[in-house]
Design goal:
The complex is a heterodimer of chains A (394) and B (334).
Chain A (H helix, E strand, L loop, with lengths): L11 H6 L5 E5 L6 H14 L3 E6 L4 H6 L10 E3 L8 E6 L2 H12 L2 H9 L1 H8 L4 H16 L4 E5 L8 H13 L2 H7 L7 H21 L1 H31 L5 E7 L3 H16 L4 E9 L9 H12 L17 H30 L5 E5 L8 H12 L6
Parallel strand pairs in A: 1-5, 1-6, 2-4, 2-5, 6-7, 7-8
Antiparallel strand pairs in A: 3-4
Helix pairs in contact in A: 2-15, 4-5, 7-8, 7-11, 8-11, 10-11, 12-14, 13-14
Chain B lengths: L12 E6 L5 H12 L6 E5 L5 H5 L10 E5 L10 E6 L2 H13 L2 H9 L2 H8 L1 H17 L1 E2 L2 E2 L3 E5 L3 H8 L1 H6 L6 H14 L3 E7 L3 H16 L4 E9 L6 H8 L5 H10 L5 H30 L5 E5 L7 H13 L4
Helix pairs in contact in B: 1-14, 3-4, 3-6, 5-6, 6-9, 7-10, 11-13, 12-13
Classes of the chains: A alpha/beta (394), B alpha/beta (334).
Chain lengths: 394, 334
């Protein structure tokens, strides 16, 4: 068998020190520490002289508090890092409804905007989580980028079911707005269109069924909404496309986060392949919450054997001690604990190696598991430092 | 008939939620196995198109159809009941709904081709939620020959952050439809979800974020008037260390000399250095245990029944699932 592949190292400091890096997107499946990693990268970049804004979608109160803010909202708030540097740090949390409302207000005349904002379908669309959050995160990213107030934007992606939703949602919304059903629904408001004739038969089937299933009022609300929205469709699509292209330009870097577990790394693998397919630049993988034993010279097997020796009555060096005595209970317990940690470390290594075998060119950085969650800037700083330095693995 | 009472007697629809990464699907599957103990017929439903059940039971991707995936937990040499599984997607659920209530399968297919499902999931997720929860409540109430088809239905539901919206279908839909068939359907579904026949269980690990989400989720569902279920504490690691040793280690007072002596007695070389390394590991572990104790107390204050599931190392397989099912059964969850 070949020796396991060693991945190139992801150098996050080089990434944030490179002034050409303008956007860092942290993505990965839920629960792998995206938000914390984004904040840690942002803090480190600010302390290394960048003007940074961290855009998060996760309403993590603890993280806001860790940055000395009582809460985060839709406006970038300055964070006092208490660290002398030429850089600066701002943080904000996406308010998708607010962001959506602002787009509507910017794209429609006041009357029409009011009509849209009051429509039940708009209210459902703008406050729901399915796709809108991803789309609005992209929209906000584009807005922040265009203000040119920051030279680095670190964005944390929504806690999607899978990391891929984030890439698909903006285009899905765009496709949806161009969809056949939308055209059908808007058609009655605009008689005389050529395709009306072709669709008449289908149309009555559809409206008939929809009325039966949803009720006439729902269908009417839907049509009102779609018609009112119709004037904005073009603008929406364009915006989605522009932001999507922004993600493909040099200066944007994706960082994929994963915990060293099979599911998280499987998601990471899909994502890496998707990014390549979309020609989006991947900086590398952060393997978060890696367990690194302090004493790696003693293998799990030898540790268990030693624990058994102490627990049973066989003393290799012939001492007269009663082995099962409480005197050795601590040592035996610690040996068992060590064995578990070594087994865990071996498993984690194995799944990481599987990833690297499939993606040998993807740079990897590791962050050791922290005994407690991050509560303050010091904790974020420790993660940034951990990212920047080579892990001490024996 | 059951040999003894369980904590959830009378519950027919078990909704399982939890923060991503806590093992929600695994616990839902283990609970379903435990419920099919003693001949019960149980349906396990997933609603997010992840095919997590197929992966757990090592079978091909589930279609939109109820398939038998396993045999329930057995007892005293007898085999358990049958475990069925179903992957609900909004598209299938819509066709099903149209067919079942209106006999409109063909029209439904036309709507699907026109992108109605895409439309509904994008513009009004409340509609696709009511279709999915509707399928679960239908299965839970379905009868054949005068008795229920399933003894219990377990739903692997969306994560904690979305569960309130997902289950609060009636309100979500009423914003869109004041009257009409879909509103009536939503109201029917809501009645089942709010009835004592439904309980919402939370899966968490002993970590800060999942616990915070669990407490927030419990409060949210309580305010929505839904029946709260149990708290399933997953991936618990027993360690066999004495409390006094852990307390000392957490405070940085580990007796390294005592460890070194033991290592030497076990015939390990360089016992001093090794003991120092192991003491560091013990210290980290002890601080973690102390943190977990605080978190257990926080969960206890929520006042719901709690169950602890051991961490299954080396990945979950069918054997591991049965082990978890047994643990749940012993603790009275099923």
């Amino acid at each position: 068998m070949n020796p396991p592949a060693v991945p190139p190292r992801l150098d996050t400091d080089a990434l944030i020190d490179d002034r050409r890096t303008r956007i860092i997107v942290c993505c990965g499946s839920g629960g792998v520490g995206k938000t914390t990693a984004a904040a840690a990268i942002g803090l480190r970049a600010a302390e290394r002289g960048r003007h940074v804004v961290v855009l998060t979608v996760d309403p993590a109160r603890r993280l806001a508090q860790a940055m000395g803010l009582s809460y985060l909202d839709n406006i970038p708030r300055p964070v006092d890092t208490g660290f002398p540097s030429d850089g600066s740090l701002h943080a904000m949390m996406l308010d998708m409804k607010r962001t959506f409302d602002e787009i509507v207000e910017a794209h429609a005349d006041p009357d029409r905007a009011a009509q849209i904002l009051a429509n039940p379908f708009y209210q459902s669309l703008s406050s729901s989580f399915a796709g809108t959050q991803e789309y609005m995160a992209m929209e906000k990213l584009g807005q922040l980028y265009r203000t040119d107030e920051w030279d680095l934007i670190v964005v944390d992606t929504p806690p999607s079911r899978s990391a891929l939703d984030f890439l698909d949602a903006p285009q899905r919304l765009g496709r949806f707005l161009d969809g056949r059903l939308i055209r059908l629904l808007t058609a009655p408001a605009k008689p005389g269109r050529a395709y009306m004739k072709m669709l008449t038969a289908g149309f009555s089937l559809v409206t008939g069924t929809l009325t039966k299933v949803l009720g006439a009022q729902v269908l009417k609300d839907m049509q009102t909404f779609v018609t009112a929205f119709d004037t904005m469709f073009g603008g929406f699509r364009e915006r989605a496309d522009t932001t999507y292209r922004l993600l493909q330009t040099p200066g944007t870097e994706f960082i994929v986060l994963a915990a060293p577990e099979p599911d998280a790394l499987r998601e990471a693998s899909y994502f890496v392949e998707r990014l390549a397919g979309e020609r989006m630049p991947l900086a590398g993988l952060i393997l978060n919450r890696v367990h690194i034993p302090a004493a790696t010279r003693l293998s799990a097997a030898r540790s268990i054997a030693a624990a058994e020796t102490l627990e049973n009555h066989e003393m290799p060096n012939g001492t007269a001690e009663s082995a099962g005595s409480p005197r050795y209970a601590l040592a035996a317990g610690v040996l068992r604990l060590h064995a578990e940690r070594m087994q865990l470390a071996v498993r984690e290594r194995r799944v990481a190696e599987h990833f690297t075998a499939a993606h040998p060119t993807v740079p990897v950085a590791e962050v050791a598991a922290q005994p407690e969650d991050v509560h303050d800037l010091e904790g974020l700083r420790a993660i940034g430092l951990s990212l920047a330095s080579r892990p001490a693995r024996g | 008939m059951r040999a003894r009472d369980t904590d959830w007697e009378g519950v027919r629809l078990h909704v399982v939620t939890g923060k991503g990464g806590t093992g929600k699907t695994t616990v839902a599957a283990a609970l379903a196995l435990a419920l099919s103990y003693n001949g019960g017929k149980v349906l396990l439903i997933e609603v997010e198109g992840r095919q997590g059940i197929a992966r757990l039971f090592d079978c091909p991707p589930l279609p939109y159809a109820e398939r038998k995936v396993g045999i329930g937990l057995g007892k005293d040499g007898r085999t358990g009941g049958d475990l069925y599984a179903l992957a609900v997607d909004p598209e299938g659920a819509l066709l099903d709904y149209l067919d079942m209530f209106y006999g409109l399968r063909h029209a439904g297919q036309a709507l699907t081709r026109l992108g109605l499902v895409d439309f509904a999931t994008t513009i009004a997720p409340g509609l696709s939620d009511v279709l999915r929860t509707g399928k679960a409540t239908e299965a839970a109430r379905r009868k054949a020959g005068g008795r229920e088809v399933y003894d219990a239905v377990v739903m692997d539901a969306p994560p904690t952050g979305r569960i309130g919206r997902f289950l609060n279908v009636s309100v979500e839909v009423s914003g869109l439809a004041k009257v009409g068939p879909v509103r009536n359907h939503a109201d029917t579904v809501a009645r089942v979800i709010r009835s004592p026949q439904t309980a919402v269980h939370f899966v968490t690990t002993l970590e800060e974020m999942p616990i915070q989400e669990t407490l927030d989720g419990l409060a949210e569902l309580r305010s929505l008037g839904l029946q709260l279920g149990g708290i399933f504490i997953n991936k618990v690691h027993p360690d066999g260390l004495a409390e006094a040793d852990l307390k000392a280690a957490a405070e940085g007072r580990t007796n390294e000399a005592e460890i070194a002596l033991g290592l030497k007695a076990a015939g390990l070389a360089d016992a001093q250095t090794l003991a120092a390394g192991l003491a560091i590991e013990l210290g980290e572990h002890a601080r973690n245990v102390a943190l977990q104790e605080r978190e257990r107390r926080e969960l206890a204050a929520a006042g719901q029944p709690r169950y602890e599931l051991p961490a299954i190392t080396d990945g979950i397989d069918l054997g591991g699932l049965y082990r978890l099912a047994e643990v749940l059964r012993n603790q009275g969850a099923a």
